[in-house]
Amino acid sequence: MWRRVASLSSSISSSFLAQTASRLNTWESLTTGIAQQAKGVIAPKEKTPFITFVLGGPGSGKGTQCIKIVETFGFAHLSAGDLLRREIASKSADGAMILNTIKEGKIVPSQVTVKLIQKEMELSDNHKFLIDGFPRTEENRVSFERIIGVEPNVVLFFDCPEEEMVKRVLNRNEGRVDDNLETIKKRLTVFQALSLPVINYYSERGKLYTIKAIGTEDEIFEQVRPIFAAFETVG
Ligand SMILES: Nc1ncnc2c1ncn2[C@@H]1O[C@H](COP(=O)(O)OP(=O)(O)O)[C@@H](O)[C@H]1O
Ligand SMILES: Nc1ccn([C@@H]2O[C@H](COP(=O)(O)OP(=O)(O)O)[C@@H](O)[C@H]2O)c(=O)n1
Ligand SMILES: [Mg+2]
């Protein structure tokens, strides 16, 4: 069960040994370790994780479509932005730094974000994850691979014209500190410079599914649905 793996992996990750191991290790070596102990107390993991990264500029509709994917295909939704905002709200040690970074439209150091994602994955009973708004930089991508030790199965890219993204963000009305014209301009520059290379990386590896993110929410979901339906068929 995922939770068993999780508790195993959290106890491991607190030790230096395991941190070193997790750098070198891949997911397989973790599961091999568990399999070796399966005869004893720890059961083998039932299912390998299925990971989807959800990418796209600010306001491209990632969060909106993730809700539909969760409803239809039963994924766990992990929004990197929501996890970071939760850290701010909980007044954690990194909260002030995260708030300033978000206000500036910049990217929070990967180690912080990956740790939050890792914790959520470990706590989840699900094995299908939608990781929304991550990786936004090459550093994010490499850090996830190093710390979590897995690669995504699917990468969705919501491709939306800038003027539409700006319009949507300015109308979002969620009281976010970064939903203003000044920050959105910075975020679009960061998206072009740092996030597009990640999208290209996955395109070159044949993992990228590009969605034309214009139209109604339902119209857009009709492009998304067959991608996951195909994976369900495969099993
Ligand atoms: N297809 C769409 N057409 C118009 N507005 C949309 C569409 N999809 C989402 N929105 C709205 O645009 C805003 C940004 O959407 P959101 O899902 O938060 O995007 P992201 O997570 O990519 O920033 C929200 O207010 C949302 O309700
Ligand atoms: N991988 C990530 C994701 C978000 N963030 C920060 O959180 C902000 C909001 O991210 P978000 O995913 O909630 O934003 P939207 O694209 O949904 O508008 C980003 O502009 C970054 O400042 C980050 O630093 N690293
Ligand atoms: Mg979002």
Automatic annotation (TrEMBL):
Q: Which GO molecular-function terms appear in the entry?
A: ATP binding; CMP kinase activity; dCMP kinase activity; UMP kinase activity
Looking up InterPro entries in the UniProt record yields:
Adenylat/UMP-CMP_kin (IPR000850), Adenylat_kinase_CS (IPR033690), P-loop_NTPase (IPR027417), UMP_CMP_kinase (IPR006266)
Q: Where in the cell is it found?
A: Cytoplasm; Nucleus
Q: What is its EC number?
A: 2.7.4.14
According to UniProt, the reaction catalysed is: dCMP + ATP = dCDP + ADP; UMP + ATP = UDP + ADP; CMP + ATP = CDP + ADP
Q: Which UniProt keywords apply?
A: ATP-binding, Cytoplasm, Kinase, Nucleotide-binding, Nucleus, Pyrimidine biosynthesis, Transferase
The keyword ATP-binding is assigned to this record: yes
Query: What is the recorded name of this protein?
Result: UMP-CMP kinase
Q: Which organism is it from?
A: Gossypium tomentosum
What phylogenetic lineage does the species belong to? Eukaryota, Viridiplantae, Streptophyta, Embryophyta, Tracheophyta
